[in-house]
Amino acid sequence: MPRTCTACSHDEHHQINVDLVHRDPYRRIASRYGLSEAAVRRHSQEHIPELLVEAYESLKRGDAEDLAGELFKIKDDVERLKARAEEEGDLRTALLGCDKALKALELQAKVEQIIATRPTINLHLNPQYIAVRSAIVQAVDPYPEAREAISQAMLQIEEGNGLG
Fold first, then answer.
1. Does the pLDDT of residue 93 top 60, yes or no?
2. SS3 per residue for 85-137
3. What is the reported pTM?
C-alpha cells in the first residue's frame, strides 16, 4: 500500500510547494516544516511537476474563457448595430453587419470548440501512471543509484522525450 506523502498532508503544504518552486534547498525546507529531506525530495519529484501542469492548464483555460467573454460582447455589439442599420433602412450597412456577425459567430464557434472539446492527455497526471511511478520509486528507494536512473528515465517519458 502506498504511503501518504507527508508534504501533501502537511498543514503548510502550499508554502512547501512554493518553496520547492523557488528552488529552496531540500534540507532547509525539511527543517523548516519538520519533514525528512527524503520526503521533501520525493514530494518534489512526484508531485510538483503535476501541480505545475495543473496550474498552467488552469491559467490557459481562464485566458480562453476571458477571450470567449470578450467575443460575446463584440458579437452583441455587431448584432445591435446591424439591427439599428436595418431599422434605418441602410441595407448596405445591415449587410456588412450580417457579414461581421457571421465572422464573429464563426470565431465564437472555434473558441468554444477549443475550450469545450479539445482533450488534453497528460500521462503524468493519469492516476494509474502516478500509482505505478510511486510504486517503482518506493521499490527502489533503498537503491539510490537505481532510483535516480529510473527517475530520470520517467522524467524523459513525462517530458515527451521518450527513451533512447
1. yes
2. HHHCCCHHHHHHHHHHHHHHHHHHHHHHHHHHHCCCCCHHHCHHHHHHHHHHH
3. 0.45
